[in-house]
Amino acid sequence: MQLKDALEILEEIVFYLELKEENVFKINAFNSAIRNLSRFDVSLKEAFDKEIIQNTKGVGKTIQSILKEILEKNESSLLNELKSEFPPEIYSLTKIRGLGAKKIKKLYEELNISSIEELEQACIENKLVKIPGFGEKTQSSILENINKLKTTKGKLLLHHADFIYDELEAELKKIYKNKFSPTGSLRLRSRIIPKIEILFENNSIQKKIIEKYSLKPIDENIYAGIFNDAEIYFIFTGEKQFYYELLRTTGPESFLNKINFNSLKINEFKSEDEIFDKLNLPFIPPQARENENLELRFYDFPSLNDLKGLIHIHSNYSDGSNSIKEILEYAEKKNYEYVLLCDHSKSAFYANGLDENRVKEQWREIDEINSKSKKVKILKGIECDILPDGSLDFEDSFLEKFDCVIASVHSKFKMTEDEMTKRISKALKNKYVKILGHPTGRLLLSRDGYPLNLNEIINVAANEGKSIELNCNPHRLDLDWEFHQKAISKGIKITISPDAHSFEDMEFVRYGIDMAIKGGLEKKDIVNCFSLDEFLKIFCQKQ
Ligand SMILES: [Zn+2]
Ligand SMILES: [Zn+2]
Known about the structure:
The protein has helices at 3-19, 24-37, 44-49, 52-55, 61-73, 77-83, 101-111, 116-124, 135-152, 158-175, 184-188, 206-212, 242-250, 253-258, 272-278, 324-333, 356-372, 396-399, 417-429, 454-464, 484-489, 503-506, 509-519, 532-539, and strands spanning 156-157, 180-183, 192-193, 196-201, 216-219, 222-227, 230-237, 309-313, 338-344, 377-385, 404-408, 433-436, 467-471, 494-497. The protein is α/β, with parallel strands linked by helices. It folds into three domains: 3-85, Orthogonal Bundle (DNA polymerase, domain 1), CATH 1.10.150.110; 157-290, Beta Polymerase, domain 2 (2-Layer Sandwich); 304-539, Alpha-Beta Barrel (TIM Barrel), CATH 3.20.20.140. One zinc ion (ZN) binds next to loops.
């Protein structure tokens, strides 16, 4: 073992001592020993043999004996003892930049957070803003740092890849005047992006770009490098072959085979449309090319403008950042007809969930705002917790008064598949529940959904005439697109909802559109493509 590895063990000890709020002098002693020893690049054994440890300032007897134990047993009994007092993964939180023992202690005490997955979930649910010393800014920078941690593992969530691409595009546009386009998984709008691929129309500046981004050749005309910690892949092609290569590199292979791409005799086209024409096919948008179950036909796919309702929005009554009035103004600006407010219900105490009285207070405000609003109507909704036994957080007599109820699981994820399936099925059978929120609870790249028989849930939803949400938060994208065909084949309509806690989140609907196209949903399959009247009358059975 190297000395620096042993020092890492000491650092871990310091972390736990800080969590326990041990004596400051003791903690400082560890810190100065670590600091003073860190400049020696030797093995732990050498450090003892050459008496480095014995003679370095600040390395007292206690620390020496800990290092000795590490040398002999490869572990520290002190560390093991400290660890046993806390959940096993809590130290992993230190990997997130900006999080030290003090903050981690708060997160643990206030929200019982002890792993990166739990922290990510809490950020997405906007739970951190209520903890003293955190706030919205800290929360979003923590979430961003979690994303970065994932990037270094080589994979990006779609919105994160977009963000990096946008920066790269802005830089490229300054130096490159010819055509270029994202291609590969980014153009397919996959949920997870392994690398950012860009196709360039070849020209004389190729060399300059390669130098600017220190790219290494991978194959003929393909170069790879790193930009903002993400892997980038630049592909250069001829001007006339651009669209042919765009279609080819967008892929995926299964789609190219399906459209008989290799049968093309020429590779010079003026657009992708022209290639589809040549193949006697309608244009298939890139998003849909990943789905092997779709037919090669025209689909009446939705676009952002087709969304008439902004559904599943949290206001500052629970854990959202915006007032109802601000949400209304946003909806007006974006030309929505209606907004379904869905704050948390009372069991979600961490999210400042609403009890009956506060709901009524909110209704009064909604009525007042609606009386003055001409363009947009605010609807009274709730994201009602599905309790562990499958019952709902409010009595039926109260649920009845909402315009629309979304029901979601937010607690007690550890159940057997059978129990969880029964729990959610029971909630779906409640007459007043209209939409199932984020059905599996998964978080992409970090947490699998709770065990659930999703096929069974789809059957129940179909029988009960309920909608299933396509939660557009790019960490969720749940109901996954691979289940969309199954759902609509049973007559289920899907609700595209951003589950927004801020204006920024409301923009997530674009990922919902991407996933809807990927899943093969058409406008008629989507709840928010209903007009206000249709939504209330047909879907909510309200006059
Ligand atoms: Zn939720
Ligand atoms: Zn929500």
